Structures are given as structure tokens and as C-alpha cells.
Amino acid sequence: MGKTMSVPVYTTEDIRRIEAAAGNAQPSLMERAGLAAADLAAGLVADRGKDILVLAGPGNNGGDARIAARILGERFFRVTVLTASDAGQLPAGRRWALVVDGLFGIGLERAVTGDFARLVDYANAQHCPVLALDIPSGLASDTGRALGTAVRATHTLTFIAHKPGLLTLDGPDLCGEVSVAGLGLDVRALLPPRGWIAGPELLPNSLQARPRNFHKGDAGSVAIIGGADGMCGAALLAGRAALKLGAGKVFVGLLDHAAPSFDPCALELMLRHPDEVLGLDLDALVLGPGLGVGERAETLLGAALASDIACVLDADALNLLAQNEGLRQACARRSADTIITPHPAEAARLLDATTSAVQEDRLAAAQRLRERYNANVVLKGNGSILVARDGHWFVNTSGNPGMASAGMGDVLAGLLGALLGQGLSGEAALVLGTHLHGAAADDCAARGIGPVGLTAGEVADAARRLWNGWLRPRAPAP
Q: Does domain 200-470 have CATH number 3.30.70.80?
């Protein structure tokens, strides 16, 4: 793993504060943005021709676009600038080398309609690169929601820093290739970040290779509890993932009365009665994969929450929390690390909300989950939102659509449990485990294993390989 810098992410409010702190910079931030846009636009045109269409809105984003148009004209490109008043006179059949979208920036809060929507539709109908300035018009900067119609860009040049909406929900499908123009600002000095793009570079101290003098007790004991009738596979997948990410001992407590006495695909797993598992000396506990929501499952979850063992709560453990106030209070009282892993529908149940409300503002929903359950949270989905117990937040950009298959969540739960069992903090396990899960799926796809047909077990195998590649040699003793 090469040395890379962590990448901060700022909300719209944060960006406004940075702009205010920059004061009357010279040249102005708008002039700098226009120049950066013109430079990238010229590179994207390449040998496609000289005709560039610039769509300019009424605000600062339109100002950036007009400056870019002026500079491109000075460089002998044939530039046409259109505004909403020109929407009725769109040039039919014109072949553009590039379309520059400068209609709306990060301040947009309403759906794009009328003449602006016609300009967006025109841009989306072109067969050439589309460069969005700051954010594709129609995309909400903080949430990643498409507000009615939105520009589908092939490239986005965002100014000052990344915004959450570029990275989650609809953002990755609308932004294309994203690059950042810092405009000469030291943003971290102007406003220390509260959010980052998840990645191993954030937590280098958690990625130390094992010393030679090491035994399985040092690697932690992890237990998986789940596998009710007909759902043993979920718990076994989680257990196998925990093994492959280095847990020293992995126990699986299966609720299914007809469960096998061993896993023929992972003989190293120790299958036990669930009640027996809770009596073991454990470093981490994963509850939920195939757990069911019956009385027995509820009792087991209550016992786990009452313990001082680091816990990962997934799947049915989350459904039980959502329907039982006593369990919710027990979770909120815990001092030991807790990680919860809801998808949007589970998050909605945990918040007594609707799935659409959760998706309308994923970062806010994840923060509410953290506050209500006193837990580290991964709100799964396109651009998973991670929030640590202390309120720091992250957006995970690894992963691909091949992960939309059975068992992926079980594998994530097992990976997280293994990291907790090996002594990582809840925040470190949350960030590294979630990013690793997606990166493993990306690695599989790059090697032709998916995305279509990618299986959860294959992701666990790739995660082991990547994790070993991330670990850095330990410094020699002084």
C-alpha cells in the first residue's frame, strides 16, 4: 500500500464557511474556478473538435461557467453560451466536442424544472463528454439526491473539496469521474474536516503486521450467533469471513435444531449451542446473521447487550432492536464498542421512519442512529455512510453493483467482528472493515469475477488477500 493522503469531505455549510474564511482572495475564487474549469475542459476536448457548449445558470456556478467560456474563447475554441432564456432556441443537430454544465451548484435545494430542465435534457442527449462544474446540476450537494431531472456528467470538477452528494446515493451515477480543484486554499487550515472518504490511509497505526512472537490467543476469539431454522448459511458465511480476516478462534452458535455439528467448508469453525457461546471468554460477538426474531433470539440479544463484549449487530438483531424498547435502551447504555450495520429499510425501522426519509438524507439518518443507539454506524448502500461514536463521519466509495447478492452483509459482519476481536477500536474496525469489504468486491471484478455473479464467499477470499497487502512491516525494536 503506497503512502496516500486522507481525503476530507465537507458539507455545503462547511464550504460556505471556508469561502468566508478565505476572504477577498486575489484572484477571486470565481476566477480561479473558471480557470481550472477551462484547463480541464480543454483537455477533455482533445481531438474531438473546437465547438464547446457552456450552459450558464444565474448564480455563482453560472459565473464560474462564464469565466471558463471566456478563457476557452481566448484559447481559440468556438464557445456557445446558453442560459435559461435560450432554452426555446436549442441548436438541433449541432455536434459538440464538449458540454460544460454550469447551471446550478451546491446551493440548489429545489427540483429543476421549466427552461432549466430543458437545458439539462439537452445536455443529457448529447454524444460527447459532459463536464459538470462543482456538482451536476440537479444533484443535492449534501445528500446525493437527484432533484427532479439532473445532468448525467462524464466528468465533474468540484471546487475546494469533495461534498457528500458526489459520493453517495445518486451521486456516483451522475458525476462520472470526479476531480477536485482546491483553488489554492488550505482547506484543512481554514476549517478542520469532520468527514473523510473512508480508506486505509486514515488509520495507519491499525495496519501493523503481526510480530513473529504471536499466537492464536493474541488474534482474538470471535463468536457468531444466528442461523435459525433454514438460515444456517448466513451465520456460517460470517464465521468463515472472520476466520479469513485473521480471528484466532471463531465459534458459531446456530439456533437451528437440525444444524450440522461442523462446517465441511471451514473445519476450523467451532459450532456450538448458542447458550454455550455466550459463556465463553470472547473478544468480539456478532449477532444477527440468520438470527430470526423469535423469543429465543431476543433473549440472546439481550444477554449480549448486557455484556462488556464488543458487538456487531446485523440483520435480525437490528430488527429486534427496532421492535423492543428495552433492547434499544440496553444498546444505548453500553460502554463496550457496538457496530450496527443497517441497510436503508432496517435504518428506517430503527428510526421509526420511512425508507425514503432515510434515503433523502443518508448522513443525517446515520447521525441519528449513532445518537439513538450509542453505536458506530454503517448505513449501507451506494456510498455507504459511516459514523463513529464520537460523531466523525466517512463516506465509503469502494464496492460495486456485484455486491447486490445474498450473503454480502453476513460477510461484512464477520469481517467487522474479526477486526474487533483483534483489538481494533470500533471506529477503526468500522472504517477499515467497510472499505475492505467494498475493495475486495472491486478486486474481484477487476479479475473478471463479477460484478454479475459475484458471491459473498469470493469477496471474503479477496478481503484476506487485500488485508495482508495493507499490513505494514513493524518497525524494529530500538
A: no
